[in-house]
Amino acid sequence: MENFIGIIIALVVAILVAKDAQKRGMNAWAWAFGVFLLLIVFLPLYFILRKPEIDSAHSETDGDNQN
Questions:
Q1: CA angle 27, 35, 54 (to 5 degrees)
Q2: Structural domain includes residue 67
């Protein structure tokens, strides 16, 4: 039972990392796979190496409304 709970936790965290990596323009599949297999290693590594979030809709209108 404990193994099943551990697999579910690793799967949920891997899905969340994949969604975040995709928003940041990183390889979502690779990060999700790494986090799922070795959570204790790849999750801290992801937090250290992740790029800033890409916000294309906001960055296009940043300077338009300034007078």
A1: 35
A2: no
Nearest in space to 43 (alpha carbons), one of 20, 63, 67, 22: 20
Q: Give the Cα separation of 26 and 1 in Å (integer).
A: 34
Q: What is the DSSP letter of 17?
A: H
Q: Is residue 17 part of a domain?
A: yes
Per-residue pLDDT tens for 44-53?
A: 999 999 988 8
Nearest 5°: CA angle at 41, between 25 and 36? 65
Q: Is 64 contained in some domain?
A: no
Number of domains in the chain: 1
Q: What is the DSSP letter of 38?
A: -
CB 38 within 8 A of CB 30: no
- For 25: left if phi > 0, alpha if psi spans -120 to 50, otherwise beta; the answer is left
Instruction: Look at the pTM and tell me if it is higher than 0.85.
Output: no
